[in-house]
Write a structure and sequence with these properties.
Chains A, B, C, D: InterPro entries: FmdA_AmdA (IPR004304). Chains A, B, C, D: This is Acetamidase/formamidase family protein. Four copies of one chain form a homotetramer. By secondary structure, chain A is mostly beta strands. The first copy, chain A, contains three helices and 20 strands. Chain A starts with a strand and ends in a 7-residue tail after the last strand.
């Protein structure tokens, strides 16, 4: 159960099979640096290219195709005092008739106050003078090498994870990814200081981070990313349209409730029908992300 | 500000222009009975036909096309001790490859315990012996007559409301509907004792209700249903696929933030981008329902 | 087998249950007038309102719910020498990023030359000085009253037909509609002098027509509109997104190949897999239209 | 203008950046072998793996990012006398309610008669005893290396081409692909002896081929694949749902009509609105394919 402090020297814009940056053991912890979505590091130096440059890949000893990599998000610490977003709203979330009325795309800078635990626009905007939502760090893009020799752009996501931009990928959550290659080859980056549902301006508050994660190999097989928080379990589907992402997530939850909680399809539907929650991870990237979430309080005790 | 106790004699399976069952004044309260989605009343007598028989229409004096009807949901009291659901999960939420594996559709009966404030399956199901989620009454289907002489099935929803199956249409919420005909012609019914996101078994816990609502005419124009709760404001889009429903809801929220809170498109996007929440009302009916929701705490103080 | 010359006095913007304008016998022919999509008649007088004012409804003796109404399109004769279209392309067919670059919507007038059998823009447009495609009349919107007391806007389409804007609804084609009310209640209008696939400018060349159709009751049940031409049989699905419209059309074709041609699902798939054609009726209206078409030459001889 | 006879020794299941199998000059012709979608060669020996093993990549001297690679399909000769398909219809083209009624997936073998120019099921199927559609060879999957170091599965398609399964990628057609890497890195394979629209059984008639193509570098930039036949020009969009694929294709055609035919957006819409044709390439793969096609007879003479 070693802890590795890794300083990346290069970054990746695809998630695929590449030379590992570090080999670690099952159960080890990594502390490392990530740059923002545009490649700016803690000093706002441009050290990598768009989109979403990844730190990695980390080779986890013992991880084999068919296994699951469990990634506990221990800590996400912004490594600088500012982040940026775009405005206005993305085309993907507007009625087509409203698109032409939108102003041009601009980049805005936000102050990140780690002491206060808040973020705030640096330049005042009329009506938002006091708007100061909480600092809620999350990982926008992370995952493992996909199957079949694919190398997938960090702009998008798939079964192997990737650019899901889901705000529950936050400290305290353990994310699960289906392993397709020996060593899993885990990548991470694209941290956000805050983000609403859907990443509807095309960004969260993009900044550089020091991230701490603990990686564990589970000898079980999953179809899509999953997650565990203190309060919930959730599954994630990545696809277009949202309907298909939701179908992937729901089908994976049905499978999970059967595997771990002994619920057959009918029983699972009784439970899900009354208490399921759907979250929209992103509705901006090439593949949209929907999470199917169930509070632990409703799960059968085993 | 009169209160009317109305006992329905007939029910409607379309929302359209029909002879009003009652004329009320702006600000009046209605206490009335609704039957369940299959037409069973408080005595489980079959008094109406599928789908979703509606009580109404109520003519509200002073409501004119271009106005908004605000419907405060004062109270939703189940009028019998049981409700029913379907199982298994709907085709709309499953990967197509998983559909063939599902068991046949069955109806299950739930006990509704008004004292305890819970619901529970009447016949025990393995793994759900202690599953007893809270009684959380909501209105599945309500709205006003649509424009242009249309009569829309209560199976579906549109700009005028209808079968949205969104769990925040609950006591304490005020729903807004765009008025298209004189008197608004308001209908309601299809109460659920409980329902998760998406109505993913094709039903909530369907039962009969005594419903109490207060109707008010707002001299303002909206494009899609809106809602106000103690904590949130939300807008609703109804369409397929989910993407389009989400676009309608988001565009309507952008409009609302401009009208009432003085935020231009860019400012609204800064706010929404960090704190917006999306809820899936239903992903089962012919038109799916997505709500765009913002906590009041983030809205500019006026 | 009478022929009725009917002169409409009023027009309808919904397809639903209304007082019949004429009662005819099974097998009778109707010759009648239709106005253009905006309500202009043969003299360009505004006699009706948008959208797509319908002539009808015609009550066909002997048609009962569960039957099929077969509408042979005998003749579509433009009743004036001009029609109109919109430009530019609809939002529904453009990448969202391209929408803002489009010019404002304008109405263009086309000359309809019945002698030459062509249409041509009346005002010259650079690059289209010689563009003169054939006059290919079609019915944009027609169908029968839907089930359950619905009244559906002529802007859209559903199982009962409506605004499908499919160019094979042309002279020589027999269209089939599923009957849901006694007498079928048939409506027609919205003729186009010409239209490409998808109605991608939001219109065909809209003009008034004298239309001649022959109505026959088939004692058989269908799920979605069907059509027969000299060369093909086709089925039509109406929904969003296009995927769902295509699913409806394909499923209906599978059913037809079983009913009339003795092909089980496997055999039908072998045939369809090699020779099916898909046409996009419209990708503009609230419900999109996709046709699934098979050339008669490939059908089993019975 | 050399002609190269290339015998592949290895095959690829992703389209990405890999060591070229051959370097050729701009204008050269390649004659090579392709295996079927499951990796069977001309002798039905299994020499490669699913999905859609590719021959290539071919490096074309002078091709640079931002250029276009024009691939003239000179000849597609089946290299064995049989091919195979699946039945029944794909889940993607059926109403969800119809999925459970379908028989299990089976593989069927077809005889390919090069003399007669026809294909026929080898085992008789009731109702299809005389079903013998024409041999119409096409390329299912071909394209060039994508941008940014991606390696995309040959199961899917994107801007760079890939598994589009469009029946007009046939002899006589010249396909255009946007070049993203030096040398273009062209791959091809997955030949079909015949296929209807949509590849709705999940396959065409899959067989091995000798393919002959001529590659030319165009110093111009395109956004999506394009094609030229004797009669038509077309553009191709690859995405889900079909709506988005259609948007990509239509937007690319609008661009082409401006670049090469001098039509502004308004003029192009007048032309497209009356004469455009949409074809469904596939509605089976992860990304669906729609082509936007215009007959040359309607194009402005330059």
């Amino acid at each position: 159960m070693a802890t590795h402090r890794f300083h990346p020297l290069r970054y990746f814009n695809v998630i695929g099979t590449a030379e590992p940056c570090l080999r670690i053991s099952d159960g080890d912890t990594i502390i490392t640096d990530t740059v923002d979505a545009s490649g700016l590091d803690a000093h706002e130096a441009a050290v990598a290219q768009r989109p979403n440059p990844m730190t990695g890949p980390f080779f986890v000893e013992g991880a084999e195709p068919g296994d699951t990599l469990a990634v506990r998000i221990d800590r996400l610490t912004p490594s600088r005092a500012t982040g940026w977003t775009y405005s206005p709203l993305s085309h993907t979330v507007l009625d087509p008739a409203a698109i032409a009325d939108q102003p041009s795309q601009q980049r805005a800078v936000w102050s990140i106050d780690r002491e206060a635990g808040t973020v705030q626009l640096r330049e005042p905007v009329k009506g938002l003078e006091t708007f100061s939502p909480p600092l809620q760090p999350m990982i926008g893009c992370f995952g493992v090498a996909p199957a079949g020799g694919q190398a997938l752009s960090t702009a998008t996501s798939a079964r192997n994870g990737g650019n899901m931009d889901y705000r529950l990928f936050a400290p305290g959550t353990t994310a699960w990814f289906p392993v397709s290659v020996p060593g899993a080859l885990f990548y991470l980056g694209d941290g956000h200081a805050c983000q609403g549902d859907g990443e509807i301006v095309g960004t969260g508050i993009e900044t550089s981070f020091e991230m701490e994660v603990t990686l564990r190999v589970l000898k079980r097989t999953i179809g899509w990313p999953r997650g565990e928080t203190a309060d919930d379990i959730f599954t994630v589907g990545n696809a277009r349209p949202l309907d298909q992402a939701l179908q992937h997530a729901t089908t994976e939850m049905l499978r999970w409730l059967g595997e771990d909680y002994g619920l057959d399809s009918r029983a699972a539907s009784h439970l899900m029908g009354q208490v399921v929650r759907y979250d929209v991870g992103n509705v901006f990237n090439p593949a949209f992300t929907v999470a199917c979430r169930i509070a632990r309080q409703w799960l059968p005790k085993l």
